[in-house]
Design brief:
Elements: H1 16-35, H2 42-55, H3 63-70, H4 74-86, E1 90-94, E2 102-106, H5 108-128, H6 136-150
Antiparallel strand pairs: 1-2
Helix pairs in contact: 1-5, 2-3, 2-4, 2-5, 3-4
Length: 151
């Protein structure tokens, strides 16, 4: 067993990155359990939700808008949107003013599956984070601060 390996943190539970990784894996497992019956992956759900949010403000949501809203890689977003289009959850149309862009819209089927997924995911989140009780708001603020700093 190597004895010369040095860690900055004395224990795994002192490492915020390690803890975040553990928490993320547990949370993703719970999300997968509620999304699988809807034929959605976590990534597909995130992009559909981003599209849903953005569609409330604009009828000309683009792939770049969705990538920016979800802090996701543009190429990955493109691939996932193709999959969602194949499932008939979204449609892509030519943008009215930008010939290089396409607008992305939810289909009726996409709206139905997104609404079901939102209910399931939000309930799963409430259950998952219930132990934080009154500290949930502070936890969320801390996460937003980290996202804003590292985006």
């Amino acid at each position: 067993m190597p004895r010369d390996i040095e860690f900055h943190f004395k224990r795994p539970n002192d490492s915020p990155g390690y803890l975040l990784g553990q928490l993320t894996m547990l949370w993703q497992r719970k999300q997968k359990k509620v999304l699988d019956p809807l034929d959605l992956t976590q990534t597909q759900f995130v992009l559909l939700a981003a599209l849903g949010w953005l569609s409330k403000k604009s009828n000309a949501v683009t792939q770049v808008d969705i990538a920016n809203q979800s802090n996701a890689d543009r190429m990955m977003v493109s691939k996932v949107l193709r999959t969602l289009e194949g499932k008939r959850f979204i449609i892509r149309k030519e943008h009215e003013t930008d010939t290089r862009a396409k607008t992305i819209r939810l289909t009726t089927k996409g709206e139905v599956v997104l609404q079901k997924a939102l209910i399931e995911v939000e309930n799963a989140d409430l259950d998952f984070f219930a132990t934080l009780e009154t500290k949930l708001s502070s936890f969320n603020k801390n996460m937003v601060q980290l996202i804003d700093k590292n985006s």
